[in-house]
Amino acid sequence: MINFLRTNLLHISYLALAWIFCLVLYPKVVFAEEVTQSKVRKITYPIPETPTHYHVQTNYYLDVLKLALARSDVSYKLEIISIPAMSQSRSSIYIQRGLYDIHWLATSEQRENTLNPIRIPLLKGLLGLRIALINSKNPNLLLEASNIDGLKKLYAAQGHDWIDTKVLLHHGFRVQTSSNTQSLYELIIKGRLDYFPRSMLEVWYEHEFFNHKTLIVDENIAIYYPLVNYFFVRKEDVEMHEQIQLGLLRAIEDGSFQNNFDAYFKQYIEKANLKNRKIYRLQNPFISPKTPMNDPKFWFKLPVE
């Protein structure tokens, strides 16, 4: 009888210890799962509802963001927000209002005062290398201008809220603006404007997208001024800013940023034939002094004239 009691007491003791052990450990397991779940952050990013002439860049920027998020130290769940086509000024306002968390925008001091830029040029500085669309009736128009003073006598087409417009006007160029890119094409076709400087990374696929037989891509000159696109977030999104910047730097270091860039744009860089173009270089007085101009890993190296 005594042995039976001892055996049962011993068994009960083991059960009690096991139960206490579970009570102690189980909350830790639940807590660990909760911590893991809490580390997954949602990040919202806008994509146009319908394809636009920016569709190549749209896909490129999304892929760059995915590269950065995959290399950050925080787990992010990317959520795409569908939006109508809009100006960059409007998108800037939407970020401030919290309609989405992050978007690419051309930088300016004013934009950097209202939002927080991730200061890594997404297009390696080639946003500011401009090649013009011209009317096919006068294929040598820009060549015949012979110098920058001759170029300034011609009328350039630009978007009404673009930094490019301010840069060209600052340097004495004649510029006519519109909020509608298609209308600017039409004005060149009708001969009311002379040329439409576009980034060399967008000019050819835009030409194909609008399919205007009357327009051709100029083969003779290029205009360059420092101009960059950054990802922008709200001022208060400090962690998101730090993590995406970290992810972008890691993507540059491991080569995936360059590989993605080449996959989208190498064909256009080769097509530009920069070594055989006359490149007019302009200053951009509207770019922030905080732009990392002296860090070569961020920039495409232009041919030396």
From TrEMBL:
This is Solute-binding protein family 3/N-terminal domain-containing protein.
